[in-house]
């Protein structure tokens, strides 16, 4: 299928296709690239319109060709106000931080093994988040500061069909008897299937991850909260139309007491229509739910898969349930492969008996509901 300008621009963030080569000699190549992205919008019901940074970054990639299809790759990404960005109500145009830093060994027709601060292969399982601002519901463990990751090459199963897989292990806090509820370790596996049948393209992904945390005691090295998650994703492409659906579940359990904390369910359905080579419109529906069991569930600000939870903690006690429906529409336009403009609107509606704390209190006490509207206009420039 023909690659459009917009597809090239979106791919640039992952592949550094737009990066400038600053050195290329004796098998060594160094690329520098990144993007600057600014958004004007309304990000919460209780906030005025604001101007914010949305994931601006600077990337460096060094590659050494060892011959016979073997390469060593080093990569680092610097982010500005990493972890805050568009949700920062004060200023999101500061605080440079290392967002990614990894080293990899790659072999043609075999795959890549990488070490460092990076995303896991579970981060690539989600297929249908076309949004720039308000979407995304991947419930898998998606990255850490000390990750060992393997992503295989895509092996051909038959004409037009390929299959690849990934495996990850994440090291957590090295200190034993840790008084904080920090990550102890995590691991996962994933699979990626792609096929082209005449004019129809098919992508099917699946992933499974386990996250294990400390119990928060300075006197013990025991395991605390354990999170087991799985997700399956599908996507179909016919000409300019893309349609997909995916579903995942996460279960939360306290290792010591063996009490089940609760369960999360995450459904995402999306469609995209590319009406010009360089312009598209898209719509996404997300249904996110948390149900509390004996141990109950509690998430810090921004940790839950709820759009409204970025302003405060989310908690769901035993026999409580919170359900959020997000309806999102957007459009983008690529002036060329380096410049993309977009507009996006999201409506969130929450119903249940749990609590989302902070200035934006949604649902608490008896069963009730709350709603939220967010919108933004952004410009992304790759270099």
Q: Care to describe what's here?
A:
By secondary structure, the protein is mainly beta. The protein is built from one helix and 22 strands. The two termini are 25 Å apart. 34% of the residues are buried. The model is unreliable at 1-16 (pLDDT under 50).
Short description:
The chain has 383 residues and is mostly beta strands. Helices cover 3% and strands 62% of the residues.
Keywords:
383 residues, mainly beta, 16-stranded antiparallel barrel, three-stranded antiparallel β-sheet, 22 strands, 3% helix, 62% strand, disordered N terminus
Tell the overall outline: globular
Largest sheet: 16 strands, antiparallel, barrel
Q: Bin the helical content.
A: under 10%
Derived structural class: mainly beta
End-to-end distance: 25 Å
Proportion of beta-strand residues? over 45%
Task: Indicate the radius of gyration in whole angstroms.
Answer: 21 Å
| Order of H and E elements | HEEEEEEEEEEEEEEEEEEEEEE
Number of helices: 1
What is this structure's SSE topology?
Blueprint lengths: L4 H11 L4 E6 L2 E15 L7 E4 L3 E11 L2 E11 L15 E12 L3 E9 L23 E10 L2 E4 L2 E11 L11 E15 L2 E15 L8 E16 L2 E14 L5 E17 L2 E14 L4 E3 L14 E3 L4 E16 L2 E14 L2 E2 L11 E15 L1
Antiparallel strand pairs: 1-2, 2-3, 2-4, 2-22, 4-5, 5-6, 6-7, 7-8, 8-10, 9-10, 10-11, 11-12, 12-13, 13-14, 14-15, 15-16, 16-19, 17-18, 18-21, 19-20, 20-22
């Amino acid at each position: 299928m023909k690659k459009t300008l917009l597809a090239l621009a979106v791919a640039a963030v992952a592949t550094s296709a737009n990066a400038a080569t600053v050195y290329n000699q004796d098998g060594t190549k160094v690329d520098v690239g990144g993007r600057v992205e600014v958004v004007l919008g309304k990000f919460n019901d209780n906030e005025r319109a604001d101007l914010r940074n949305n994931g601006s970054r600077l990337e460096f990639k060094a590659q050494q060709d060892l011959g016979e299809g073997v390469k060593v790759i080093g990569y680092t990404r610097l982010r500005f106000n990493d972890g805050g960005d568009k949700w920062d109500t004060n200023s999101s145009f500061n605080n440079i931080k290392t967002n990614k830093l990894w080293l990899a060994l790659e072999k043609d027709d075999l795959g890549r093994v990488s070490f460092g601060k990076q995303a896991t292969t579970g981060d690539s399982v989600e297929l249908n988040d076309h949004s720039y601002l308000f979407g995304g519901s991947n419930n898998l463990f998606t990255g850490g500061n000390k990750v060992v990751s393997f992503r295989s090459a895509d092996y051909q199963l038959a004409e037009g069909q390929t299959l690849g897989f990934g495996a990850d292990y994440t090291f957590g806090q090295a200190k034993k008897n840790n008084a904080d509820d920090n990550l102890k370790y995590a691991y996962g596996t994933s699979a990626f299937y792609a096929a082209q049948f005449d004019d129809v393209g098919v992508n099917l992904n699946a992933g499974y991850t386990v996250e294990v945390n400390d119990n928060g005691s300075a006197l013990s090295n025991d395991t605390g909260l354990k999170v087991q998650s799985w997700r399956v994703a599908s996507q179909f492409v016919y000409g300019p139309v893309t349609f997909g659906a995916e579903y995942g579940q996460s279960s939360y359990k306290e290792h010591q007491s063996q009490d089940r904390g609760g369960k999360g369910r995450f459904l995402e359905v999306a469609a995209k229509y590319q009406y010009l080579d360089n312009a598209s419109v898209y719509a996404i529906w997300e249904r996110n739910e948390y149900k509390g069991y004996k141990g109950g569930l509690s998430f810090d600000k921004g940790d839950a898969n709820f759009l409204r939870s970025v302003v405060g903690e989310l908690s769901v006690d035993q026999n409580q349930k919170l359900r959020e429906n997000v309806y999102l529409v957007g459009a983008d336009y690529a002036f060329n492969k380096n410049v993309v403009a977009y507009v996006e609107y999201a409506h969130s509606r929450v119903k249940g008996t749990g609590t989302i704390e902070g200035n934006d209190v949604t649902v608490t006490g008896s069963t009730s509901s709350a709603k939220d509207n967010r919108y933004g206009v952004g410009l992304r420039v790759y270099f």
